[in-house]
Amino acid sequence: MHNTEPVVIVDKLWSIFGEGDKAFAVHQDLDLTVFRGEMLSIVGGSGTGKTVLLRQILGLLHPGKGSVTTLGKPAAQLCGEGAAARVGMLFQHGALYSAFNVLENIGFALREQGTLPEAMVDEAAMIKLQMVGLKPEHATRMPADLSGGMVKRVALARALIMDPPLLLLDEPTAGLDPTSSDEFCALLRELHAELGLTVIMVTHDLDTLFALSSRVAVLAEKRVLVTGTPREVAQFKHPFIETFFQGERGRRAMAPVPQGGH
Ligand SMILES: Nc1ncnc2c1ncn2[C@@H]1O[C@H](COP(=O)(O)OP(=O)(O)OP(=O)(O)O)[C@@H](O)[C@H]1O
Ligand SMILES: [Mg+2]
Prior knowledge:
It comes from Comamonas avium. GO terms for molecular function: ATP binding. InterPro entries: AAA+_ATPase, ABC_transporter-like_ATP-bd, P-loop_NTPase. This is ATP-binding cassette domain-containing protein. The protein is of the alpha/beta class and about 260 residues long. The chain has a domain at about 85-165. It is about 35% helix and about 25% strand. The chain contains ten helices and ten strands. The protein has a six-stranded mixed β-sheet with strand order 6-7-8-3-9-10, with helices on both faces. A hairpin with a 2-residue loop joins strand 9 and strand 10. Helix 4 (about 120-130) packs across helix 5 and helix 6 packs parallel to helix 7 (about 205-210). The longest helix is centred in the C-terminal third of the chain and has 18 residues, at about 180-195. The chain is globular, with a radius of gyration of 19 Å. It starts with 5 loop residues before the first strand and ends in an 8-residue tail after the last helix. Bound molecules: adenosine-5'-triphosphate and magnesium ion.
């Protein structure tokens, strides 16, 4: 499938924090285009501005210079009313609301919007709960009583409650054990295919990266250094890329696929 319709266009972006002589730039002239239907992974060292980039795409932060266009409009216009219908976000440290049960967490954005009766909000939330592989009996559980993998599923269902065409994931498999991580990747792959989503994901996990990405963007030196398939990017000469891909796990992830496997 080849799609050339851009969903996100980041053009010469500067992300600046602080003021006066304390000001510092996290991104300088960062360019990135994401096309419809892609599953793009963003990788980079800690503190290189991956989360900041997702927040720019979501319109929660504003460019110091340059521009961010998300779904055809300046990203800043996404915020507020109805934002959840356009972009879903799974935050890096995105805890669920601890005082609300699973179903209430999933239906949150829809309830906030205030246009549907309570029963319909619950019904919509129940559909999403099952879509992410949870069972109806999990609906009344409190967040504290869920496993790490279940928390991620609830957070995903919450992000998808209003059927947004674009999904942003910040370290979706961080903190999960290998089995839960593989299961969550399989779920993401399924939903991506079924719902025709565009997914932008930050991950430092090579297994997740190879399992899911059609394309990778490497963040280094305050910009997107290189984009390409995981294998293409791995060939690029740069200290970060060499450390990231050439370690034991990188070599294993890039080993030839056995016959009949996939
Ligand atoms: N609201 C803010 N105010 C000031 N500085 C900020 C703010 N948000 C982020 N930063 C700074 O921007 C830089 C990039 O942060 P960011 O959270 O995007 O890193 P990251 O690549 O996501 O790192 P990690 O892999 O650890 O999650 C860091 O130096 C951080 O301290
Ligand atoms: Mg981060």
